[in-house]
Amino acid sequence: MLKELIKVIQQEQQTYKDPITEFLECLYVNYDFAGAQQKLIDCEQVILNDPFLGKRIEEGNFITVPLRDEFLENARLFIFETYCRIHRCIDIGMLAEKMNMTYDEAELWIKNLSSKLDAKIDSVTGTLIMTTNHVNVHQQIIESMKNLNARTYMLAKSLVDPGHAAAQQAAR
User: Fold this and answer.
1) Among 21, 82, 146, 149, which residue's CB has the most CB atoms within a 10 Å radius?
2) How far is CA 65 from CA 21, 38, 100, 116, 158, in A?
3) Beta strand pairing call for 127-130 and 89-91
4) Where are the alpha helices (DSSP H) in 50-133?
């Protein structure tokens, strides 16, 4: 779904731009991590000033903006995943800088993600070493064919029995 969103952003970049779409463009189209960081700061301001996205909740002495925190966490994850796909050995200090975190925050954040990562943290050198996981080309083709087969079956079924397809859409 993200790939389709990126295609739409590329097609419509002449007619519509905002910091959020520019952030996605910097990260997934241009692989411009410095630009993505700048756009992330702009995105934070957009969310804080937006009456729908930046709704403030006041509880006692605390004022929270739930979508801001969630957006920033997911944006950091996007930056991290994209950067890790490109590089094999990553300096944690430099990664912390790219994600607007301190070194300790970045190291803790990476440790919390370690269950999802195929990586090792070298505490002595302060680096994150990504292990490459090569998927067999034949296995990729088989998985693609399974997905294609399932989609073809659903398409054929909806053509043969349009009432069933409408009921299935209503159930979702």
Assistant:
1) 21
2) 21, 20, 18, 27, 43
3) antiparallel
4) 66-86, 92-98, 103-113
Distance of alpha carbon 28 from alpha carbon 30, whole angstroms: 6
Looking up tokens 């004022």, which residue turns up?
Answer: 63
Residue-level pLDDT at 76:
83
At 159, the amino acid letter reads L
* pLDDT of the residue at 46: 87
d(CA 138, CA 19): 40
End-to-end CA distance of the chain: 18
For residues 113 and 132, give the distance between their C-alpha atoms in angstroms, rounded to a whole number.
17
Cβ proximity of 9 and 25 under 8 Å: yes
